[in-house]
Amino acid sequence: MNMKKIVTVAISVTVLAACVALGLGVMGAKQAGRDLPNCPGGVFANEAMVFDAIAICATSDVSQEKLAHAANVAAEWLDNDGDGEVDEPRIVTAMQTSRPFVIMTPSGPSAAVMAALSPTFASRVGQDLHASETNPGNGQRDASQEEVLHAIQNGGWAIAFPDVWGDQPGATLYQEWQAAEAAGHYAYDDPTCNAACKVTEYTYVAAASYLGSTKDLESNEIRLHTRDALREGVPGTVAVFESTDYRFATDHWPTGQYRHQSNIVFAPQEAAQ
Q: Shortest CA distance to 226 belongs to which of 211, 248, 241?
C-alpha cells in the first residue's frame, strides 16, 4: 500500500485475515496501546498535538526523541517564520475539521495497527511516517518533513484552498504538476501513485527546491533544484508558494528545531519528560 499519499482506504479482508492468522487481532493491537485524546484505534502509546491541529501518533516502540522531532517539524511547517503563531490560521481551521494524524511506527504499521485504524480512514486524514527514517543522522534524508507536509497539505491546504491546493483536475497545483511533467521537469514513476498522489508528491519536491533542501532532491524527481530554476521553469508553482492570498511556508525547510514548545502538547504528560 502506498502510504505516501493519505490513507483513506478501508483495510482489505486479506489483511484482516492475516491479523487473525498471526494472532494479532484488532483487540490485541488495542491492548498494546492506550486511549489518547487525538490518536485513534487504541494502538498508540504517545501523542503530540501540534497547534491543536495535527496529531503525531506513536506506537510504544517509537522513542520520545523521534516523536518530539516529528512534532517540531509539524510546528515549523505551520509556524515557518518561528514567531510562535500559525502563519495561515485558515488551514488550522480546516485541520480541526479533517483531524489529520501521522501514524508513527518503527518501520511501517503492522497489519494489526492497520486493522485497528481502518474505520478511522473514512473520516480522518492519515499519513504514515517511519521512525527509522525520522532524523536518522549519518547524512541521511529525514523523511519527516515530507510526510508531515503531505498530512498538512491534504488535511489543511487542500481543504482551505481547494481551487489552488487541491489534488483534483482544475486545481492550480494539479495543473502545475501536469505542466511540469509535460515539460520534463518532474517525473514520479511509482505505479501505485495516481494523479492525485502525484500532485502531492510534486508539491513536496517543489517546496524542497524552493526552500533549498538538497537531500530531498537527490532522487531527481524534480529536475529544477533551486528557487531560481523553479522560477524560470515552473513560475506558476512559485506563484502558488508566494501568493499573498494566504501564507505558505517560505522561510525555511523544517529542521526539527522549534522554540515555542507551548504549541506542542504531549499525551500522556510523562511522554514529554
A: 211
- Residue 163 CB: number of other CB atoms within 10 A? 10
Amino acid of residue 55: A
- E-state strands within the chain: 46-50, 54-58, 101-105, 126-130, 264-267
- Crossing angle for the helix pair 195-211 and 235-242, nearest 10 degrees? 80
User: What secondary structure does DSSP assign to 136-158, as a single string?
Assistant: --TT---THHHHHHHHHIIIIIH
pLDDT at 102 over 60: yes
Predicted local distance difference test score (pLDDT) of residue 33: 83
Adjacent-strand bridge partners of 216: none
Edge-to-edge, what's the strand order for the sheet holding 101-105?
126-130, 101-105, 54-58, 46-50, 264-267
Q: What is the CB neighbour count within 10 angstroms for residue 136?
A: 15
The answer to whether residue 16 scores a pLDDT higher than 90 is no
The letter for the amino acid at 5 is K
What pLDDT score was predicted for residue 32? 62
Please, what is the Cα angle at 64 between 63 and 67, to 5 degrees? 95
Residue 18 has pLDDT above 80, yes or no: no
Phi, psi of 186, rounded to the nearest 5 degrees: -150, 140
Residue 95 C-alpha cell reads as: 485541520
Residue 148 phi, psi dihedral angles, 5° rounding? -70, -40
Q: What does residue 174 show for φ and ψ, rounded to 5 degrees? A: -60, -45
Kindly report the backbone phi and psi dihedral angles of residue 26, in degrees, each rounded to the nearest multiple of 5, phi listed first.
-60, -40
Residues 6+ apart with CB under 8 A from 270: none
CA distance 116 to 108: 14
Give all strands (DSSP E) within 24-149, no chain letters: 46-50, 54-58, 101-105, 126-130
